[in-house]
Amino acid sequence: MRKLVLILLISVTTACSSTPKGNGKSKSEGSVKKGKLVNGRRFSRKKDNYKYFSFLSYILFNRAWVHSKVLDITLDAYKECEVKHPKRKFLIMECSNKKGGEMWPHRTHQNGTSIDFGSPLLKNKRPFTRDHSYGLRHYAMKFDTNGRLLRNKKIEIDFEIMAQHILALEVAARKRNMFVKKVLLKINLKDDLFKTKSGKLLKKSNIYFAKYLQPMIDNMHDDHYHIDFGFIKN
Ligand SMILES: [Zn+2]
Fold first, then answer.
1. CB 129: neighbour CB atoms within 10 A?
2. Distance 92 CA to ligand 1 centre (A)
3. Helix residue ranges, H only, the chain
4. Cα–ligand 1 centroid distance for 175 (angstroms)
5. How far is the centre of ligand 1, averaged over its atoms, from the C-alpha of 117 (Å)?
6. Ligand 1 mean position to 6 CA, how many Å?
7. Residue 64 belongs to what domain range?
8. Distance (Å, whole) CA 158 – CA 128
9. What is the DSSP letter of 144?
10. What is the pLDDT of residues 178-215, one digit of tens each?
11. Contact status, residue 41 vs residue 66, Cβ threshold 8 Å
């Protein structure tokens, strides 16, 4: 019993850790579809203007790991977002296992360069973050073709903030000799994204958005957008 309490205490303490975990030089081996992660970093569970979406995913499945550069890029982009929108909160969803490799049900996320980002939301045109405490159920949220939540049309995706965030990630990535290699967003939501002010800039950038997704995969990418980061080879 005492041992169990101790383990729980350690888990909770680790969960509340506000500094990223991990050390050594990170290495992403292979590809996002077949790869592994060496010396990754784990996001803090909650810090400043972001949090990791699920306690179970964080503690039990241990899926908040990425390459150190990907961690820095993400934090840098959130800092940028904080300057523009000091009160806005962001959501990180599943990343990679500590050592990478297969991560059910994702087909990718294997080498610490993939992150699922929770779609920023509005309710009655004001920032809405109740979904940040949905945990794993977040992946089950369903939106219509205009980005409105099916079960409550007052809640909708904030495509302007989504575009700003993706642009901020690209800027932060380029500083580290990386880039936003691929974005997966439900195909019928892309026009809503690209018609916003920052979405227009995004469309002009060279950031690649998946042009076709199998229906099952497509349907998954409304409550979140998936990003793969790539390394620029010298
Ligand atoms: Zn993903």
1. 15
2. 11
3. 2-16, 55, 68-84, 159-174, 190-194, 197-204, 215-220
4. 24
5. 8
6. 34
7. 2-231
8. 10
9. -
10. 999 999 999 999 999 999 999 999 999 989 999 999 99
11. yes
Q: Which two tokens stand for residue 31?
A: 């590809």
Q: Is the entire prediction scored with pTM above 0.70?
A: yes
Pair of tokens at residue 46: 């909650």
Are the C-beta atoms of 119 and 195 separated by less than 8 Å?
no
Distance 1 CA to ligand 1 centre (A): 38
Residue 91 and residue 174: Cα distance in Å, rounded?
22
Q: How far is CA 77 from the centre of its chain?
A: 12
Question: How many CB atoms are located within 10 Å of the residue 31 CB?
Answer: 12
Tokens representing residue 148 in the block = 């409105």
Query: How far, CA to CA in Å, does 194 sit from each of 163, 177, 186, 220?
Result: 8, 26, 13, 20
Number of domains within the chain: 1
44: CATH: 3.30.1380.10
How sure is the predictor about 1, in pLDDT bands with cuts at 50, 70 and 90? Answer: low
Could you read off the pLDDT of 36-59 as tens digits, one per residue? 999 999 999 999 999 999 999 999
